[in-house]
Amino acid sequence: MHFHVITLFPEAFDSYLKESIIGRAIKEKKIKVLFANPRMFVTGKKYKRVWPDGNVSRIVDDRPFGGGPGMVLRAEPILKAVESVAKKIARRTKAGAKAKVKVINFSPSGAKFTTEYAKTAAKKYTDIIMLSGRYEGIDARVAKILKAEDVSIGDYVLTGGELPAMILIDCMARQIPGVLGKFESLEEERVSSSEFYTRPEILEWKGKKHAVPPVLLSGNHKEIEEWKNKGREASEK
C-alpha cells in the first residue's frame, strides 16, 4: 500500500511515522508514505516572489470569493501536486499490475471513517491520496475535479488535515498482511472492548485497593468471552 499525502507540512509526520508498528512497517517496506507539498508547484509572478536575499515566497492561499474570514488554499498548486503523484504511480505500475487509486478529501461533513472503511480500502486500493487542507480549507473545485471522497474522522474541526491523514495511515496500515504480528493482530477482534487489565492483581493506590475483575482470573474462557462481549456491547451504545 502506498499512501500519498498532499500537505504544506510534511515534517509534521516525521516523528510519528518513525515509531512502533508504523515505523516497522515502513522499514520492512510493507507500506510507503510519500509526500507532495503544494508550495513546490506554485507558479506565476503573482504567487511566486523572489526576494533580494534569494529566498522564494510561494503563496498557496487567497481570499475566498463571497467574503468571510480566513484564507482558502488555491486549486492549482494542489491539482499540480496530485498530478505529480499520479505520474509517479504510473511510472511505478508501468511494468506491473494496474494501480487502484483512491483520493480522499478531509471534511467534517464527509463519510465517517471506521475500521470497516479501513479494511475495505486496504483490500481495494493500492494507492491512497489524501488532501490535507489548512486555513479555511481547499477550493471546492479540487475535490470535484479529482472526484475525491469526503471523509470525516469525527464531528469536530481541526487546524489541518495532517492528523486525519495520520489516523487513516495508522488504521489502514494495520489491515495489511504482515504489518501486525500474531499477538498484535488479535487487537482488531477486541478493538471495541472497553476494559483491559494486567499485573498486579491488586493495585494499591493512595490507600485504596483496586482489584482485577474475578472473572478474568477464573480461567473459564466461556465466561471471560461473555464478560468481554458485554463490554463491547456497552461501548457501542
Furnish the topology, listing elements before pairings:
Blueprint (H helix, E strand, L loop, with lengths): L1 E5 L7 H5 L1 H8 L4 E5 L11 E3 L5 E3 L2 E2 L9 E2 L1 H19 L7 E12 L2 H10 L2 E5 L8 H7 L2 E4 L9 H12 L8 H4 L16 E4 L2 E4 L9 H16 L1
Parallel strand pairs: 1-2, 1-8, 7-8, 7-9
Antiparallel strand pairs: 3-4, 5-6, 10-11
Helix pairs in contact: 3-5, 4-6
Percent helix among the residues? 25-40%
- Broad shape: elongated
Radius of gyration: 23 Å
Distance between the termini: 34 Å
One letter per element, helices H and strands E, the order comes to EHHEEEEEHEHEHEHHEEH
Q: Mean of the pLDDT scores?
A: 90
CATH level-3 fold name of the largest domain: Alpha/beta knot
Strand proportion = 15-25%
Count the E strands: 11
Q: Catalogue the unreliable spans.
A: none
Decide which structural class fits the backbone. alpha/beta
Cross-sheet strand order for the largest sheet: 2-1-8-7-9
Give the name of the CATH superfamily of the largest domain: SPOUT methyltransferase, trefoil knot domain
Q: Count of DSSP helices?
A: 8
Highest CATH level, the class of the largest domain: Alpha Beta
CATH architectural label of the largest domain: 3-Layer(aba) Sandwich
